[in-house]
Design brief:
6 strands; elongated; 9 helices; about 250 residues; Rossmann fold; alpha/beta; 6-stranded parallel beta sheet; 2 domains
Amino acid sequence: MPDKKIKAVLFDLGDTLLDFGKLNPGEIFRQGARLSYDFLKSRSQPVGNFKYYCLWNMAALQFRRLVSNITRNDFNSLTLLRWIGVKKGIRLDGDQWRHFAWLWYEPLRKIATVEPDIKETLTKLKNSGLKLGIVSNTFVSGDSLEKHMEQEGILDFFAPRMYSYEFDFRKPDPRIFRIAAERIGEAPESILFVGDRINMDIAPALKAGMRAALKTAHTNAGKKIPDSAGKINHISELPALIEKINAQAVSN
């Protein structure tokens, strides 16, 4: 009989580990545009006037996101930004391009929060023998996301770290859940998936044979979750939830 105790936890990233809340995308974009524009200007790069710079980048981003929504295949923002820049004659080295992408992301970093005791919670999970990983739908470069997590002191807790733009598919496609199980080295029934979206995280994780726990967030307010899924308000509730699941697995 297979061991159905939880041996690994996979996390979504946005509004699960990193809390962004309700965003004003236009304002976030304008702030990122200003930071990145000033960076290029300081290095005498050919950026033109700020209004045109905003419009060009906004058009490229919106078009690429439209394509992604049709194909369900995310893109790497760093690759897109570099392509746009090179077309305009901008010349940067690898570290500068990564910093440039970070400046576009930095307004999000400034509004993001993590739970005050998240490092203690993740340490407790790790010390109990659990493997921890991340599976995130995102077009934000992993370099920027991992810099953010490193600043929060949580990056090293997670391996593997999977970002949808690295694949030809994204959640809720079952293939990304299967690959995540393979990379973390546990059977699906021994994995708990924690996320904030019922359609992208909870329902497909359950369908893949995993356990699932919905974290309360504005993205799922008022929505009914599947009966077999758990629910938490804070990441700090996970150790107790996993202990309860494992006790039930032993008794069954």
